[in-house]
Amino acid sequence: MRSACYLAWGYTKAHKGRTLILVLALGLLLLLPTAVTLVIRSYDARMGARAEATPMIIGAKGNRYDLLLQALFFRDGRTDDVPVGLVERLESDPAFDAEAIPLYARYTAEHAPIVGTELEAYFAFRGLSVEQGGLPDLMGQAVLGRSAAKRLGVTVGDTLTTDRVNLYNLAKSMPLELNIVGVLAATNSADGEAVFVDMKTAWITAGHGHGHDPTAHQSEASHSAAVTAIRITPDNAASFHFHGDESGLPCSAVLVLPETDKDRTLITSRYNASADYQALRPAAVMNELMGLVLRIKRLFDVNTALVGIAVVLLIGLVIALSMKLREAERKTLHKLGCGRWLIVQTQVVELAIVLAGAAVIVAAGSAAVMVIAPMVLGW
Amino acid sequence: MIELNDITFAYEAGGFTLNAGALSIAQGEKVAVVGPSGSGKTTLLHLIAGILVPTRGKVSLDGQVVSSLSDKARRRLRLSRMGLVFQGIELVDYLSAKENVLLPYRLNRGISLDDKAKQRAEQLLQRVGLSEVAGRAVSGLSQGERQRVGICRALIAEPGLILADEPTASLDEASSASAVDLLIQLVEDSGSTLVMLTHDKVLLPRFDRVVMVDRGAVSGGVS
Fold first, then answer.
1. What secondary structure does DSSP assign to B146-168, as a single string?
2. Pick from A14, A329, A335: which is nearest to B84 by CB?
C-alpha cells in the first residue's frame, strides 16, 4: 500500500489540472444536495422551533401559510388586517382565559420589517431583552433587533426612516423618522431582523394617525414638497391622534396565549367557525408547509441522484480509460517486481485523494452556505 | 551464478518454443545475448528474471530454483536481487528522473530509502550527466537521457544481477555506444553480473561471453 500511495501521490502531483477538475466536479456535485439538505434541515429546525414556541395565531380568513409567515416572520403576505379590538375581545371573553398580543407588520424601514406590537408583552413572550438603551416611552421611537441594527449600522440615538410605500402617491402617508431608543440582545430568530415600535407608531407609519403641530414636518393640512418625513418630537407628540374608534384600527395578526389546552380548543373552534377570522396552531401549519418543501426537495433529490449516477458512470469510464492508458506503466512495474494489483491500488488511492478533496469542498462549501444562508434567506 | 537446465518454454497461444540445454553464467560475468528479431532473446531474459516460468526445466539463481517459486516470491526476488533495463526505456512518466532512479526503494519493502540511497541516486545521475535534470519529469527528457535514467534505476539498489533488454535499440549510434559504455562501467564498478540482449555486433567485444539464440534454440556461448 505504501508503494500505491507513493505512486498515487506522484500521479496526482503530476496531473494537478486533471485532478483539480475531478475534485471540483465531484465536490460541486456533492455540495449541492448536501447544502440544500443542511439548509432545509436548519430552516425546518428554526421555523419549527418558532412555530412550536407560539401557541396560537388569529388573523383574517385567507391563506393560512401567509398568515403564519406574517405573524412569525413578519413577511408581508396577502393577508387582510383584523381590528385591534380583537385583542380586547379575546382577553375579556369569559368563555376562556388567554393573553393576546397584537402584531402589525406591514411596513419596512431600510427593508427591515417594522413590527408594531405591545412591546413589553411581546418581548416577555419571546424572551427578548434590551441590550442597549431602553423601551420607547414616546410615539416614533423604536427598538431594533441586533442583526437589523448591525446590518443598518445604527445604534441608540440614531434615527431610521420608514420606507416610502408609494413614491408616486402623494396622498399616502409620508415616511416616519424613527428614533432608535434600544437595541435587543442577539436572537437567532426573525426578531433580530425587526424594528419594533408600539402600535400607535405603527399606525402612524400606515397613515392612520397624524399630528397638527406646526413645527412637525408634516401637518394635516398639507404635504409640503420640502417635507420628506414625519418626525415625532416631545414637542409635537401630543398633537398626534387617530380619528374614530381606536379598536377599529388594524393589526395583521394576533398572537394568542391560551391558559390551558381547553382554552385553546375553545378559541380555535370559535374563531375557525367565524366568517372573518381563522385560528392557527403554528406548529401544525408549519409541519404542513415544511411537508410541501420536503416534497419538492424529494424531486430535487431524485434529480441529484440521477446526475450522481451519471457522474459515477463517467468517473468509472475515466478510471477504465485511465487503466487502459496506464497499461504500459502496469507492465513496467510488474517487470520490476510489483504485483499486478499495484496499479489498481494506486488508482483506488488516487480516487481516495479526489474524494478527500471533494469532501473538503463539500465541508467548506456547506459551512459557507450555513453562514450565508441566514443572510440571504433572512432568518 | 545463473543456471539454466534443459529449459523449454512455449507460449500458451502456441507458435513459438524456446529450448535451452545447459547454460550457466558466473557471478560478475558480462554476457551478451544475440540473435535475430523474434528468435527468443527476450523470452530467455524473462525466464532468467522470473517474469516467465519455463514449461519444463529449471532456472536457478545462486542455487535457488527461481522457476519453482510463486509469482509473489519471484517478484520479490526481482525487486531485491535484480536490476532491469528495458528495450522500450520503461520509466514512470509522471515521476522525476531522481524519483524513477529511486523507484526500487519505493517498491521494495525490504530496503529503506535513506539519505545514503538518495546520495547514491544523485551520484549515479551525476555520473551519467543528468544531475541538471534530476528533478524534471522524465516525460520531458530525450530518449538517450531516459535510457540513462533506466540504467541508473537498474543499478541503484546494487543488485547482483543486471538484465538489460536491448537497451540501445531506440538510441542513435553515438548515444548507444555511450549508454553501453556507461552500463558496463557501472556494472564493473559494482561487480554485478550483466546479461544484455543486443543486435549490435560492434558492442560484442565489450562482453566476456556471447550467447546465441536462433529460432528458439539457445547455444551455450562463445567466449
1. HHHHHHHHHHHT--SEEEEESTT
2. A335
Q: Report all structural domains of chain B as residue ranges with CATH numbers, in order of start.
A: 2-222 (3.40.50.300)
Instruction: For B26-59, give the DSSP string.
Output: -TT-EEEEE--TTSSHHHHHHHHHTSS--SEEEE
- Alpha carbon A90 to chain centroid distance? 30
Nearest CA in chain A to B105: A3
A331 neighbourhood in chain B, CB within 8 Å? 90
Per-position DSSP letters for A289-301, written without gaps between them: HHHHHHHHHHHHH
Query: Cα(B123)–Cα(B45) distance, rounded to whole angstroms?
Result: 28
Residue A373, C-alpha cell as written in the block: 444562508
Digits of tens for pLDDT over chain B (223 positions)? 888 888 888 887 777 888 888 888 888 899 999 888 888 888 899 999 898 899 888 898 888 888 888 888 888 888 888 888 887 668 888 899 999 999 888 887 777 788 888 998 998 888 888 888 888 888 888 888 888 888 888 888 888 899 998 887 777 777 777 778 878 888 888 888 999 998 878 888 888 889 888 887 877 655 4
- Of B186, B196, B161, B29, the C-alpha closest to B83 is B161
C-alpha cell at A35: 447544502
Does residue A285 fall inside a structural domain? no
Of A261, A280, A299, the domain-final residue: A280
Question: Which member of B78, B94, B99 has the closest CB to residue A336?
Answer: B78
C-alpha cell at A329: 506503466
Same domain? A14 vs A126: no
CB contact at 8 A, B198 and B210: no
Judge: B90–A339 Cβ closer than 8 Å, yes or no.
no
In angstroms, the CA B186 to CA B166 distance is 17
Same domain assignment for residues A129 and A260 = yes
Q: What percent of chain A is helix, strand and coil (3-state, nearest 5)? A: 55, 20, 30
Three cell numbers written together for B104: 526500487
Q: Is A36 exposed, middle or buried (0-12, 13-18, 19+ CB in 10 A)?
A: middle
- ipTM of the modeled complex: 0.78
CB contact under 8 A, A337 and B107: yes
- At residue B8, φ and ψ (nearest 5 deg) are -130, 135
A3 vs B contacts (CB less than 8 Å): 106-107
Rg (CA), chain A: 30
